[in-house]
């Protein structure tokens, strides 16, 4: 959800829909959670960077 929010222009409801009909507030929470974790988690930073690279972003 984090990368969907970061890398697309999809609305929160659309992202939630693509993740099995989740509510837009779930998307917000997921994005905030990962954003917070990225501040201190070097492994997560590397993982997100690698996924972005794989996606060509």
Overall description:
By secondary structure, the protein is an all-alpha fold. The protein has one domain: Chromosomal Replication Initiator Protein Dnaa, Chain: A (Orthogonal Bundle). It is 74% helix and 0% strand. The protein has four helices and no strands. The protein has helices spanning 2-7, 12-18, 24-38, 42-55. Helix 2 crosses helix 3. The two termini are 15 Å apart.
List the helices and strands and how they pair.
Elements (H helix, E strand, L loop, with lengths): L1 H6 L4 H7 L5 H15 L3 H14 L2
The name of the CATH topology is Chromosomal Replication Initiator Protein Dnaa, Chain: A
Shape: globular
Q: Quick one: how many beta strands?
A: 0
| CATH superfamily heading | DnaA protein, C-terminal DNA-binding domain
Radius of gyration: 12 Å
Low-pLDDT residue intervals, each spanning 5 or more residues = none
What is the CATH top level name?
A: Mainly Alpha
Residues in helix, %? over 70%
List keywords for this structure.
mainly alpha; Chromosomal Replication Initiator Protein Dnaa, Chain: A; 4 helices; 0% strand
Quick summary of this structure?
The chain has about 55 residues and is mainly alpha-helical.
């Amino acid at each position: 959800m984090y990368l969907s929010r970061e890398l697309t222009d999809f609305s929160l409801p659309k992202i939630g829909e693509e993740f099995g009909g989740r509510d837009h507030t779930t998307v917000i929470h997921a994005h905030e959670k990962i954003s917070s974790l990225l501040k201190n988690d070097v492994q997560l930073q590397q993982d997100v960077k690698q996924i972005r690279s794989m996606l060509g972003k």
